[in-house]
Amino acid sequence: MVDLDDVRRIVGERHVVDGAALSGRPQDFWVHTPTAALGLAKPKDVQELSAMLALCHQEDQPVIAEGGRTNLVGATQSTGETLLVSLERLNDIAAPDRQGMTVEVGAGAIIETIQQRCATDGLRFGLDFGARGSATLGGALSTNAGGFQALRYGVARDQVLGLECVLADGTVLSHLSSFVKDNTGYDLKHLFIGSEGTLGVITRAVLRLHPAPQSVNTALLAFETFEAVAETLGLMRRDLNGTLSSFEIMWAEFFHFNVDAVLNGRSPIEGRYPFYILCESEGFEAEADAALFETVVGRAIEDGLVADAVIAASSRQRQELWRIREDFEAEMQLFKTMIDFDVSLPVASMEAFVSEVERRLNEEVPGNLGLHVLGHLGDGNLHVTTGLATPEGKGEVRRLVYELISGYGGSISAEHGIGLAKRDYLHHSRTAAEIATMRALKQALDPKGILNPGKVI
Ligand SMILES: Cc1cc2nc3c(=O)[nH]c(=O)nc-3n(C[C@H](O)[C@H](O)[C@H](O)COP(=O)(O)OP(=O)(O)OC[C@H]3O[C@@H](n4cnc5c(N)ncnc54)[C@H](O)[C@@H]3O)c2cc1C
Question: What is 329-434's CATH topology?
Answer without folding.
Answer: Alpha-Beta Plaits (3.30.70)
